[in-house]
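can u pls check wat happens w/ calcium ion
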Amino acid sequence: MKGMKIEMSENMYANSEDTEFYTRNHMLGKGTSGTNRDSKTGSRCCMLTAVCLGVLCAVLLVALSLLWFKLNTEIDQLQTSCEAKEKNLGMLSQLDGWRYFRSSFYYVSTEKKTWNEARQHCRERGADLVIINSEEEQKFIAENMGIAWIGLTDMDSEGVWKWVDGSSLTTGYWGSGEPNSKGDEDCVVTGYKSTNVKSWNDYYCNNVEVCICERKINWI
Ligand code: MAN
Ligand code: CA
């Protein structure tokens, strides 16, 4: 049907062109042969170009769809394999006392130590005192946790809280009324007074407490 329509309209177009050429050439006293044929060839050429472009578009569309499908499949596969790896890491870490959470291993010491000794204890295990970057992480470490040292101190400059990697504190989970140091409480514990998420207290660095060590995973 479509083919017929195209052919019909093409004939109509050709016919109207015939008439136009006939009239023009008749008035000029010329025949209708050469120029008319050129025009017909031109219009066929246009049509062919349009068809070619259409086919090209269709091919591109199919290629893009295939690429999109392939990419999505690969992303799905990667996600599944990452989830499986995370699960394995989680299971493995429980074996020797380390717990896994979002790209880090955590370990709670059994012995009580001063803040400096606690930091040393973590470093000897390829870790450092924990740095808390989110509420989720704070919730994770606060779970079933009493008082424990974390990697936060203002021992270099009173009131300027720094993590053990040198970064500044942005969000703190201080207990009510904390920090309240008068210059003598430069190290921070979590789990002070309550099991609430907001449970940090600035404390004497020479007090002896258990500590939470964190070892980040370098995926690269
Ligand atoms: C109270 C509070 C804390 C403080 C300790 C020191 O519990 O004032 O902020 O760190 O005493 O023992
Ligand atoms: Ca305090």
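The radius of gyration is 39 Å.
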